[in-house]
User: Which sequence fits this backbone?
């Protein structure tokens, strides 16, 4: 029987202005922007064997072991994309996936894994249909498809700084796919950025992002949040263009704290931050005040703290981290070049 295979590696990303709240078909309620990471990757190998079974067939292995939970997510997604991939019921997919970062470490695995899956599906599609798409269109569709699988995954197909969602000042911006921010529109001080993830708690999240998004539907601060997120994004992009570090820091920290304030004030309310998260925030701000080194923090839907700083300050910051937080697990990452096709 005919067998085809492809492999992609795709990174996770960390949002600076957060996507939180969506309407049906994975349309975000506000635009967001993120740094694409370099070391936190999903490496995925997808093999398609012709069976003509007439139904979706998937074997999914995560780090060498069958994983039924993730398999059912993938099958559900493939069901919803049957029209796009009309060959999907004629092939059995064997998917082998690995992450270069630990599970539940505060690094979004759905962004890297879903983007790796979607890039692989589109590469397979090219092989099966014999129709090759131009590079730019390939990535645009990969972003759109990844967004439909998991919103933030749509940002992972592009390098460095990536925005997703309609923004007044960005011509051609869309809620359907992300787009890389042009390097010429980013001041050199923001070109190479580090993200050191300070692990407060590696336990599974108590509230999924999916459940969190839906709590925004009836949130009392909903409209205010969306208005503020738009403003934050516009201001952040202009601060990053003009090299205004103080503005960058204040917007990034505000947006992360707002995300958690929204969680705390939703019905039901939930608190993902731990006392240690707050302690780290205090320490980070104190270090910034004392040294003038422009460290700041962001936080995803969990208790772990992402410490962001320009690569130029890497040695000093890492020395401080090693000295001040001896017992804390820290994963060092930085901005990176986006997905790579490993095998075609
Ligand atoms: C807090 O992309 O994981 O990380 O679309 O339901 O899969 P789904 O949600 P997901 O939400 C990410 C939320 C966030 C902020 C962000 O990455 O922008």
Assistant:
């Amino acid at each position: 029987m005919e067998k085809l295979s492809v492999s992609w590696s795709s990174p996770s990303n960390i949002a600076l202005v957060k996507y939180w709240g969506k309407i049906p078909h994975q349309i975000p309620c506000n635009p967001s922007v993120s740094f694409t990471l370099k070391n936190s990757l999903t490496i995925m190998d997808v093999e398609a064997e012709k069976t003509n079974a007439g139904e979706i067939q998937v074997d999914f292995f995560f780090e060498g072991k069958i994983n039924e939970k993730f398999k059912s997510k993938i099958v559900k997604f493939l069901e919803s994309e049957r029209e796009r991939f009309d060959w999907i019921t004629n092939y059995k997919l064997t998917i082998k996936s690995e992450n270069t970062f630990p599970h539940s470490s505060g690094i979004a695995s759905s962004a890297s894994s879903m983007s790796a899956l979607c890039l692989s599906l589109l590469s397979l599609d090219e092989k099966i249909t014999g129709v090759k798409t131009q590079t730019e269109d390939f990535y645009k569709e990969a972003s759109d498809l990844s967004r439909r699988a998991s919103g933030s995954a749509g940002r992972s197909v592009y390098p460095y700084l990536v925005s997703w969602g309609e923004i007044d000042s960005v011509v051609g911006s869309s809620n359907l796919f992300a787009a890389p921010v042009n390097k010429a529109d980013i001041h050199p001080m923001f070109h190479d950025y580090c993200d050191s993830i300070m692990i407060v708690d590696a336990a599974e999240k108590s509230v999924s992002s999916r459940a969190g998004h839906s709590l925004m539907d009836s949130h009392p601060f909903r409209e205010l949040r969306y208005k503020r997120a738009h403003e934050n994004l516009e201001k952040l992009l202009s601060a990053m263009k003009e090299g205004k570090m103080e503005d960058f820091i204040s917007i990034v920290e505000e947006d992360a704290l707002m995300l958690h304030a929204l969680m705390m004030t939703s019905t039901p309310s939930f608190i993902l931050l731990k006392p240690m998260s707050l302690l780290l925030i205090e320490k980070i701000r104190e270090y910034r005040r004392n040294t003038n080194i422009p460290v700041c923090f962001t936080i995803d839907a969990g208790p772990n703290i992402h410490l962001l700083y320009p690569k130029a300050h890497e040695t000093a910051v890492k020395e401080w981290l090693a000295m001040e937080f001896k017992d804390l697990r820290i994963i060092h990452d930085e901005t990176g070049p986006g997905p790579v096709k490993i095998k075609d």
